[in-house]
Amino acid sequence: MSEETPISRRLKSVRHIIIVCSGKGGVGKSSVSTQLALSLHALSSRPRIGILDIDLTGPSIPRMLGLDGHGVHQSSDGWVPVYADAQQGSDPRLACMSVGFLLKKKSDSVVWRGPKKNAMIRQFLSDVRWGELDYLIIDTPPGTSDEHLSLLEHLAPVHSKLSAVIVTTPQAIALLDAIKCLSFTRAVKLPVLGLIENMSGYVCPCCGEISNMFSTKGGEEMARREGLTFLGALPVDTELVTLLDAAEPSSAGGPDEAIDIKAFDILKRYQETSSAKLFRSVADRVVAGIAHVEQGSAVAGV
Ligand SMILES: Nc1ncnc2c1ncn2[C@@H]1O[C@H](COP(=O)(O)OP(=O)(O)OP(=O)(O)O)[C@@H](O)[C@H]1O
Ligand code: SF4
């Protein structure tokens, strides 16, 4: 491995980096990144988790974790991440950083060209004070854009424990884009932990029964064809949308305290949703896939 850089110094205390990507927009990449963070957080091994949102033009992780409204604090040792479990006591384990924390208003948008995006990503990788992490989940924009190239350019030379999760929906158009995303990971030799088929069927809000309104299993078939691990199918779950999309700060306490209470509430309530129950096996497969990558075993998808 090459000489130390600000990024390698910062990330040497991160055990594994999981890049969450999708070929197409709106297939649920941010919701999968959030659910992965929440599910890993609930493991009895109590891992330390970071979630970095580099979807610069559409950051949604702060909203999904109930952290909208927080700003970034600068310390002498870099940017301090925002902790979703700050209300849990003195040893929070779910750290979050997003361009959303840098915007003055939620409605502000980032209109940047490639070099500025690249500089922002470099700063996220070199300046955030994550501390020791077991998993750093990186939520990326849809497709294979400047952000992906910058990310790989910065990470590949300094961090060997990198892998990707691909998210798709079962429809043919999303699958075509997922194949493009897979080709990208192969071109840059990024191991793929597996594929998630999101919005596969529908959870009835009355009885919890899963019905298949549209096509399903497209992702599962693609995984089989491409020799990828199928990490699981996640149905459309209205309970999940209510929880993650309506994540406005509660009115209790002062401004930051109100946000932290909201985030803590999401952390607890998520575990009771049908999605959380299904996601547990996805998270187990991700953890098993990481063990393979770390042992240097051949990984499907490369
Ligand atoms: N399994 C699901 N059940 C119900 N709603 C879902 C599910 N997955 C995602 N959603 C909802 O669909 C919308 C899009 O999801 P999300 O923002 O995660 O997609 P994305 O792929 O990250 O989008 P973008 O292309 O904007 O980055 C959100 O409102 C999210 O809450
Ligand atoms: S899934 Fe069950 S509760 Fe939902 S509409 Fe069908 S029968 Fe009714």
UniProtKB/TrEMBL annotation:
GO terms for cellular component: cytosol. Transmembrane segments: none annotated. The keyword DNA-binding does not apply. Keywords: 4Fe-4S, ATP-binding, Cytoplasm, Hydrolase, Iron, Iron-sulfur, Metal-binding, Nucleotide-binding. GO terms for biological process: iron-sulfur cluster assembly. It is found in: Cytoplasm. ATP binds at residues 23-30. InterPro entries: Mrp-like_CS, Mrp/NBP35_ATP-bd, NUBP2/Cfd1_eukaryotes, P-loop_NTPase, YlxH/NBP35. This is P-loop containing nucleoside triphosphate hydrolase protein. The lineage of its organism: Eukaryota, Fungi, Dikarya, Basidiomycota, Agaricomycotina.
